[in-house]
Amino acid sequence: MSHPLLKRASAIAKALLQFYARHQRDLPWRKTKDPYRIWVSEVMLQQTQVKTTLPYYKRFLEEFPTIEALARAPLDDVLKLWEGLGYYARARNLHRSAQIVVRDYNRKIPSEREALLKLPGVGRYTAGAILSIAFERDEPALDANARRVLCRLFALRKDPRKPATEKLLESLCRQLIPPGQTGEFNQALMDLGSTICLPKRPSCLLCPLSPFCEARRRDLQQELPITAPKRTKPHYEVAVGVIWKENKIFIARRPDDGLLGGLWEFSGGKRQENETLRRTLVREIAEETGMRVNQVRPLTVIEHGYSHFTVTLHVFECQHLRHRPKSQRPWRWVELENLESFAFPAANKRILALLQRKYQKRQRRAAIS
User: Fold this and answer.
1) What class has domain 10-217?
2) Which of the residues are catalytic?
3) d(C-alpha 266, C-alpha 258), whole Å
4) Which CATH architecture has domain 235-368?
5) pLDDT for 35-73, tens place per residue?
6) Long-range contacts of 270-275 (CB under 8 A, 24+ apart)
7) Fewer C-beta within 10 Å: the chain N or C terminus?
8) Rg of the chain over all Cα atoms, to the nearest angstrom
C-alpha cells in the first residue's frame, strides 16, 4: 500500500525512537537478548497485563532457566507455575515447543520466520517479536497496542483483527522500520499504545506521533480503530461436586487439549433443561466417574467468566457411596492439605480456598473443645 505518510517514514521513526529512549518501561525482558527469555515473556504477555505477568515471569525462569529445563519438566509442573495466569493453552504450547526445539533444533530457537511459525502457539506477532528483539531481524511485531497506533496513524477504517488488515499493517510497518533498529521500533510502538495511544481517551497532546497522525488531523482518534460489536456471551449453570471419601477428595485431570487442558478439577457439568442441580450433580458424577454419591449438601455459588462464555458454579459437598472411579482421565483421591500441589482453574481455586477456610475453622473449634 502506498500512503502519503510513508514519505515521512524516517521522521516518524525518529520521533518514535526518541520517545522510547526517554520513556521506555523498565521491564526484565528488555534487559536480555536471550531468545528463550524473550519468547517466554511474549507468550505470557498475550492477553495479559504487564503488572500481572511480572511475578509469573520471574518465578517461571527461576524454575525453568533454560529451554532444556522447560522441555524436561513434566507438564503438571509447568501448569502449576502458570496457575492463575489463564489461557493455559499458552503454557502447553510453550512446553511442547520447547521439546521440539530441543529435539529438532539442537536446543537453539530458530532464527527463521517460517521455522518459528511451525512451532505450537507461535503466530505472526510472537515470531516477529522474537526475530526483531532477540535476533535483530527487520520484522514487524504487531500486538493489539501497535495495531491500534498504526490504524490511527494512517487513519485506516478497518478492523485490525481481520487477517487482511493485519497483513496491511505489517506492510506499512515494514516501510516505517529503520534498518537495524527493529527491536526498539517494535517495542516503542507497543509502549506508545499501552501508555499514550489508549483505546479510549488517547493522550494526543503527549504523543510523539501527533504531528503525523491522520486520525487526529481528521478528528477520528475516538472512532479508530474500528472494532466489531461484541457478541453476547452464553451463560451456563454448572453443578460441581466436592466428593469426599473419608478424609480425601476426588479430583480428575482435564484432557490436555481444549479449555483448561491439563489442569485438575472437581467433578461436575452443565445443567440440562428442567433438571434440578442435585440431579445434574449426581448424573454428571456418574457419567464422568461411574461413582455413586449421597449426603449432597450445598457449599457455595460462584460466578465466573471466560473469554467466550460465563458460568454459575453451584458447588456441593457429597460423600462417595460406592464403586471405584472408572474415569478415562487421570484421577486421584487427595487429602485437603495436599491439594495445593495440583494446578487448578481459577474457579476451582476459589472452591479450594473456601474448603481450606471451612475445615481450618472446624479444626480450631475441635481443638478448643
Assistant:
1) mainly alpha
2) 42
3) 17
4) Alpha-Beta Complex (3.90)
5) 999 999 999 999 899 999 999 999 999 999 999 999 999
6) 270/236, 270/237, 270/238, 271/236, 271/237, 271/238, 271/239, 271/314
7) C
8) 25
